[in-house]
Design a protein that fits this description.
CATH topology of the largest domain: Porin
Distance between the termini: 100 Å
Helix content: 10-25%
Amino acid sequence: MHWLRVALLLFMLHAVPATAIEPFVIKDIRVEGIQRTEAGTVFSYLPVKVGDTMTEEKAAQAIRALFATGFFRDVALERDGDVLVVVVQERPSVAQIDFSGIREFNKEQLTTGLRQIGLADGRIFDRGLLDRAEQELKRQYLSLGYYAVNVTTTITPLERNRVAVNFGVEEGDVAKIRQISIIGAQAFGESELINLFVLRTPGLMTWFSKLDQYSRQKLAADLETLRSYYLDRGYLEFSVDSTQVSITPDKRDIYITVSITEGPKYTVSGIKVAGEMLIPEEEVRRLIRIKPGEVFSRTLLTESTKLISERLGNDGYAFANVNAVPELDKQKQQAAFTFFIDPGRRVYVRRVNITGNNRTRDEVIRREMRQFEGGWYSDEKIKLSRQRIDKLGYFTEVNFETPAVQGTTDQVDVNVSVVEKPTGVLLAGAGFGSDGVILSGSVQQNNIFGSGRSLGATVNSGKINTIYSLSFTDPYYTVDGVSQGFDLYYRRVDPTENQLGRYQTKTLGGQLRLGVPVSEIDTIQYGLGYENTDITTFTDSPLFYKDYVATFGPSNSSVFLTAGWARDRRDSLIYPTTGSLHRAGTEIGTPAGTLEYYRLTYQYQRYFPLTRDLTFMVNGEAGYGGGYGGKGKQLPFFKNFYAGGVNSVRGFKSYTIGPKDSNNDPRGGSRKLLGNAELLFPFPGLRNDRSVRMSVFVDAATVGDTYSTKELRYSTGLGVFWSSPLGPLKVSAALPLREGPGDRKQVFQFTFGGTF
């Protein structure tokens, strides 16, 4: 039993409190061991003060309180007569944080990140935080493909119990994808499938796009693209069996191997519709895009369920559920589908909530809403509302959410969140070519005081065109959406400065405008204006201009009427991917002035979404003009049509395509045909940025007094469009493919601001 007595004795010794302090009344408190911390800081955390009776319980509380501050490595309490002595050993503080060997990241950003987790100059040094920061730094490098990175942390003690922290980084080289292999592909070639991937082996542009660097998220997206490719081509039982990502010992090369099972190719044998039919079955079947006898396509199947759900959503069934259940016949390799429809309860909108509009008034957004509070929910009206708000041009993002109202089964809220962009724009334009530089500028505020009204002033200092103008538009002059506006302008045209014609014109004019919406997508515009134009010719001016002055005089006045129609089905004003735009207009000089003429214009623009990233755009414009009634019966030459330039046929100098006068200078024509075709795609490396994209284009136009393909000019090239914070920027580099005598090339062109 000797060992039992020993164990019992040890237990009793450990049971004695470590802070065995006899109770006493504290006459004073003294702090020892502090170097940086003020004594008052220690006193503020102590749960006892002078005059209290010190006990073992209060001693334990004091030690816990001081440890909890994190300032001290060790704390002890001692008694010196009636004086409580607090003996502490401080933790070191961080005097400085340095980085060495870092090239990929900004050191200031890293310092800010460390401060957010508590590691910064002047803070208490914490080994746990240091380890956490080191691991996070490694993780950031690994996410960028630096698998050979080595992070070494050095702690250097300094005077006054301080330390210096240094993160030494050996970044190494970025690991590149050297090979992507797909095992099990039989129906399609391996190279064809690999081309579907965003990830790729090093190529011409991968230094910029960094798509040759491995990313788990990008690989997952590529595998889903691969799966969709097979499922859209009938391989209903396709599966990805395994994915292996291996890296070489030197951590420089990555090899990706994907094993797949294709399975048989299925065709659709039949379509059935079941469930609660709130709309006629014939209408439901018209919405089903997948047809019997066709090869199965998951995209068409998903589109079919979406169209049916949206159709029910237009009648208020916001939570309609449509499921397509397959019945497989593996022997015949056929699949029949039954569309089960569960419309759920019909719901109405309780409230429309708008957030993010710090400058724009609520009413400016609400008047574009076509889904009203208290009305039945409509998916079509929700989409139309979003498009109308987006087309205001005041926001970079417009998002809609329709959450159910808690505690109800038949109500939803519509939450509209917007991200505003600057609507006060300083616009500029320039073109570079053999004939020099042309500059222009304007100041425009498209949302005055958040009211939705626009006010603009333009100053164009070009050698050819000098323009001073003031314009104002109220898009909701009436509650019905009738717009009203006016334009005042002075325009001096002097082609002699750039060898474009030997004449000068000075025009002073103004116009009143009225716009009437006739449907959600159709608007009719009316206008009444007056212009006075003075014409100056010279001794060496071509006979074309002298004859005009001899017939109509050197000063002409025009009282003109305008009328136009626009139908806009585009899904976005800044980044359209689908839809169309129609514009038709006419301008008629009435007998109230000295000029009697007419100008007719028409534009058609269409966007075709080819893939998620590719959009094909076609644009066509036509112009026709002439005179009527009195003398001359011709279109005034300063009302002629022109072509060429960054917004017309790129690669040719502005206004230079068309007939030439006797000095071989362009004079325009009364007929115009213009066509553009563009393949639009995201800017490399900025796939998800909707403010910028590139295009490959072909432009063509002919201008004259007759429509003649013999005078057709066309070009091709690359373009970039960026909706920058200061205004739209459009840049093009074009090569004319067909030129004529006297044509003037301008390979590089850009405009900063304006409407494109």
